[in-house]
Automatic annotation (TrEMBL):
Methyltransferase required for the conversion of demethylmenaquinol (DMKH2) to menaquinol (MKH2) and the conversion of 2-polyprenyl-6-methoxy-1,4-benzoquinol (DDMQH2) to 2-polyprenyl-3-methyl-6-methoxy-1,4-benzoquinol (DMQH2). Transmembrane segments: none annotated. This is Ubiquinone/menaquinone biosynthesis C-methyltransferase UbiE. It comes from Chelativorans composti. Its EC number is 2.1.1.163, 2.1.1.201. Pathway: Cofactor biosynthesis; ubiquinone biosynthesis; Quinol/quinone metabolism; menaquinone biosynthesis; menaquinol from 1,4-dihydroxy-2-naphthoate: step 2/2. It is an enzyme of class 2 (transferase).
């Protein structure tokens, strides 16, 4: 491969991903801003706008791979602090940064933090009104298993929304984006986290992730209906939506 990384096996992959996020948890938000040049904020806001949670109590959302809480906080605020959001992540270090941020914002009573695996959600069937996952599913070893779990825990009528890096559909942009991801991102990773290799792995995982149409097909395969997507910044990221009917 481009970075001399051997094929990463499924079991190994989760370890690699866990190491990366344990190491960078306290610098994660800064890294995101630097690596996406601040764009991740706009993409996350656009996804939560698309979700448009109701501004009344009783709405329950699950934010998987929720990390330091960016999506969950936006859902709570978009609902006028009515929604309750469960933030689930496999990594306790990321969650504890999220919990501290929530307390600082005074919204921790609207959140529950759960350390668990997206492939094995510790909730009964038909529990949530919405399932969100942002820049997380790419890191899960068995993506289809995670999608099936999403379908299972949603109530009938529930909404699935996934934000992820995708295929750039604008001709000149893809060249710039390649240069950015292969050169800038590992350098920023080295500067801020002292570690370029992990970030090379993350860049590679973006390359391997299915494009918009193929990912939509996986979401349909999990059982979702009316699957659509929106490209952000020329397809650098895309949000996919589906409904459990
Ligand atoms: N959603 C947050 C955001 O957009 O800022 C965090 C995204 S971060 C790039 C990816 C997160 O996925 C990490 O916090 C990592 O611990 C989590 N993760 C990786 N594998 C996971 C799994 N199998 N189950 C749940 N979370 C996982």
């Amino acid at each position: 491969t481009a970075f001399g990384f051997r094929q990463v096996r499924e079991g190994e992959k989760q370890h690699l991903v866990n190491d990366v996020f344990h190491r960078v948890a306290d610098r994660y938000d800064l890294m995101n801003d630097l690596m996406s040049a601040g764009l991740h904020r706009a993409w996350k806001s656009a996804m939560v706008d698309w979700l448009s949670p109701p501004k009344r109590p009783g709405y329950k959302a699950l934010d998987v791979a929720g990390g330091t809480g960016d999506i969950a906080f936006r859902i709570v605020e978009a609902s006028n602090r009515n929604a309750h959001v469960t933030v689930l992540d496999i990594n306790g270090s990321m969650l504890s940064v999220g919990r501290d941020r929530a307390v600082k914002r005074g919204i921790d009573q609207h959140l529950t933090f759960v350390e668990a695996n997206a492939e094995e959600l510790p909730f009964p069937d038909n529990t949530f009104d919405a399932y969100t996952i942002a820049f997380g599913i790419r890191n899960v070893p068995r993506i289809q298993v995670a999608l099936n779990e999403a379908f299972r825990v949603l109530k009938p009528g529930g909404r699935f929304l996934c934000l992820e890096f995708s295929e750039v559909t604008v001709p000149m942009l893809d060249r710039f984006y390649d240069a950015w991801s292969f050169h800038a991102i590992p350098r920023i990773g080295k500067m801020v986290a002292g570690d370029a290799e992990s970030y090379q792995y993350l860049v590679e995982s973006i390359r391997k992730f299915p494009n918009q149409e193929n990912f939509a097909e996986m979401i349909r395969k999990a059982g979702f209906s009316r699957v659509t997507w929106r490209d952000y910044t020329g397809g650098i990221a895309a949000a996919h939506s589906g409904w459990k009917i």
